[in-house]
Design brief:
two-stranded antiparallel ribbon; mainly alpha; single chain; about 0% strand
Length: about 325
Amino acid sequence: MEKTRQIIDSELKIFERKFNEAVRSNVPLLDRIMRYIVKRKGKQMRPMFVFLSARMFGEIDEPTYRTAALIELLHTATLVHDDVVDDAMERRGFFSVNALWKNKIAVLVGDYLLSKGLLLSLNNKDFRILQILSDAVRDMSEGELLQIEKTRRLNIEESIYFEIIKRKTASLLASACAAGAYSTSGDEELTARMHAFGETIGIAFQIKDDLFDYGTEDVGKPRGIDIKEKKLTLPLIYTINHATPELRKRLIYLIKNHNTDKDAVQEVIQAVIDAGGISYAAAKMEEYRQKAFEILASFPESEAKSGLIELVNYTTDRKY
């Protein structure tokens, strides 16, 4: 991903400064928490998708920087709120906000980040950009609730799984690409095409995360953690839906009643491997990667397009 970073290196440096300014607060406690969050930000993939999508269609200017900041503000807010919902004590190997400052403060911090994003767009009259991102936040909330509703029975169809991840995971990445494209082009047709591109990458990204649950590499989360949390991933859904009635009953029983037992989790993992769930999910991920390449192929060659191709490959080839 280094080549991609070099393409937009100057933009990312400017973005870092602008984002730091965007989250600054006059409340000492809040400002301290913001500094803690900023120092532990992730790979910044979403801002990278914003800048590369914008560069495909024009020159990056203030609207693009505001778009990237809005994406990162909303993404960070959802992560803070997710940690509260999941009662997670760690985020990217560090203590989560709720672990250090408790749930009440964490919820308020997430609300603050959301409000900063809204005001950033409203104060600059970036109404179309705000609409694109607001749609994503709605979809993410609906996706989370749909997942809670459907996974209680631990028996869902593959189509429901894809509907969940399209809303829960892919919507924000899709909006990053769409809003980035709109910030320099103002063209609705190009914006729609880049939204479709981002959605395919978001789905591939989530399937890759699903596969990590069955791997042996150190990816920052324990092996089998999705099973322990009763999350239905694509390899597991495939296995349950193609198992004999006896095996299906056994797997659902283990996940419902013994999901914290190491041996039971290992039995489920082995059943998924034996059923071909891993290879099936990997093939589906490749399908979505090819869909993304097909969309990109419709655009002229450019440095930004090359960067997006590298990001697509990183999404499916990453080790963590």
